[in-house]
Amino acid sequence: MKHQEFHIKKNDTVQVIAGKDKGKSGKVMRVIPKKERAIVEKLNMVKRHMKPSQQTRQGGILEREAPIEISNLMLICSKCTDPTRVGYRVLDDNRRVRFCKKCQELID
Ligand SMILES: [Zn+2]
After folding, report:
1. N or C: lower Cβ tally within 10 Å for the chain?
2. pLDDT in tens, 52-76
3. Distances (CA, A) of 14 to 21, 68, 95
C-alpha cells in the first residue's frame, strides 16, 4: 500500500480557506488519511446531543471538533506566519521534508 502524504501533519498550525470557519486558524490535532480530513483544535465545532448515561448523568450538549477536508486547509509557516503552499525537498540523508514556498524555510 502506498504511503499517503499530505501537506499538513499533526501539530501544524493551519488556516481554513473554505467553509464556515474560513479565515480561522488552529492546531492540527489529528489527520485522518482515509477520509483526507483533519481535526483542527477548536475549529468546525459541532454540537452533539448526549443522552443521559451512566457516564454523563444528565446528558446535554457536547461540543466537539468535526473533521475538515485537508484540501481546505493551508499550512501557516512559523517563520513568515502566512498561510503558504508547501513544497518538498529531499535532503542529503534522503529525508523528504516540506518547505515554505514563500520564504523557503524548511518545515520538518
Ligand atoms: Zn515561510
Report:
1. N
2. 877 667 778 889 999 999 999 999 9
3. 12, 11, 23
